[in-house]
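Changelog entry: the Phytanoyl-CoA dioxygenase record was regenerated in this release. Current contents:
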Amino acid sequence: MGSTLERNLVKLPEIHLSAGDDEVFEPASLPIDSDGFIVAFTIEQQEEILKFFERHGVVVVSNVLTNEQCERSIDDVWTFLQELFNPDIQRDKPESWSYRWPSFSKLGILGDTPWLYPQACDNRQNANIYQVFQTLLGDSELIVNITRAGLMRPTKDIFFPSLNKTEDRENWKTVSEWLHLDMNPLTGRSTTYGFEHVAEGHFDASKNPLMAQNVPTNNGMRVRKLQGIVALADCREEDGGFHAVPGFQNFISTWTSQNQQVCLDANQGGDPTTIQIPKNDPIRKHIQRMPIRKGSLLVWDSRLPHGNFPNNSNRMRIVQYMHMAPVADEALRSFPLTKEDLPATFQLTELGEKLYGFKPWQSTRARKRFQEKRNPVVVEQASRERIARDMIIAELHKQNKS
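Regenerated structure tokens:
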């Protein structure tokens, strides 16, 4: 027997994966509410969520986290910064935000290190977030990836206590024109970040890119791939944040045929599952900024060009990245964590055991996948990350005692 949560799931209508071959791109801008945020649905509006997503390729669902869960998540962000990057960072002293800040800060991302802290881990097994992903995927047997937090430092009118004055920090701004795909629509390879990749190495080029989609694991144009962020604070437009080209999933095949060389070049680049949209691409005029409220989940189709735009306020923009995928997705498996990797104060739920990959779901396909041999490259990566993380934290504790 499944859990109460599994038994009570509403039977979902079949999802419709667009062929992406519309000859002309039709903009599909998202509506904005009176406070300047993207109009959001409630968790219960499953039919409406799915219908909206199939049109726009992106949807916002409100109140997946409580205010208290958001606040504890933000506490986790600061602990993470202090333990793994700079013990002198203090949340109430902007003077401490200028040095030993994580890599990828120019993209609004906090480093390349899995975010394994109590509330962050609990959010990955949150039943509300799970329900949204299973609605959009039409599948209840899911796994969650182990990924990062996102933070944009304020850049305008920041009060510095030690200076007793307010200043701007233009050098803290993120890049302003970042627009990319986390999949290569020519080869069908999608990002597996935070999961275990099953086939070729994530950073290895496809040897025959024009035929690559024939490989079962290169299924990005056949299987719905989702990505998401959870807002841990109100992400107003002036605070910076997520932008995308809604509706592009209906046009992506046509775009790919028109931009084959861009896709071929990306296949030979540093990450063959990522395509940077050319600066002169006319699709850029359809970028929409997407401010979202605290506690909301924004999910987008990986076939949408997307990125971040800079903070232009005196408030931080803070999010948690959150992706789920069906167990049946041949391209990936759960990231090979051990339970010892999880915080001592964190309690796995029945749902969490399955989402994290510690226990199989009930179906035959899920049990078969659970027994598959792990990718030794990713297992070794997880081991190196564990050792490095433990060494950094141990050194910090040693310094604090001395």
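The longest helix spans residues 376-401.
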